[in-house]
Here is the input.
Amino acid sequence: MAASATPSWFDEIGAQPPIEVFEMNKAFLDDTDPIKVSLGIGAFRTEEGKPWVLPVVKQAEKAIVEDPAMNFEYLPILGLESFTNAATRMLVGADSAAWQEKRAFGVQSISGTGALRIAADFLSTVVPNITKIVYISNPTWENHRLLFLLAGFNEVREYRYWDAQKRGLDLQGLVEDLHAAPERSVVILHACAHNPTVLF
Here is the structure.
């Protein structure tokens, strides 16, 4: 008689619902239609639908590989300071009071989703007196909602963003919704190229 397998801690975990954007991408990749169009993950593509790496990215990779000063040491916890400082200065402006008074700073992350998770954890556990209410655009990706709930936020609300009739930004709705938000709520804004609407 064969011995029964040792139970795993993970035996009770069932399949979790897929994240829509990745499920859409899988469906796109599995589709054999020659004239299919991907409306999922926003990335540069060739006419053949293959990933296209910007020439400037290839130049930067080459410069990094050929720089003898570059190594594979761990970066500080907030990332490469020269990079985060340059990005923050570009975002808020070198002349801004926030930059001048050292109230603005950056954290390097591996992706937009990674950045949101870092922000959610930081806001939920470090920043005092926030409402634990976060506002996300409508539409946005469902994983944005989940990230904040998993980080300890009590409520995720939506603000109007897309106007289907005008096929553009619902600025009036956005302003009304954010004006009505409780003080010390968290608002997630896409700085550019809003995903999934691609508004700039």
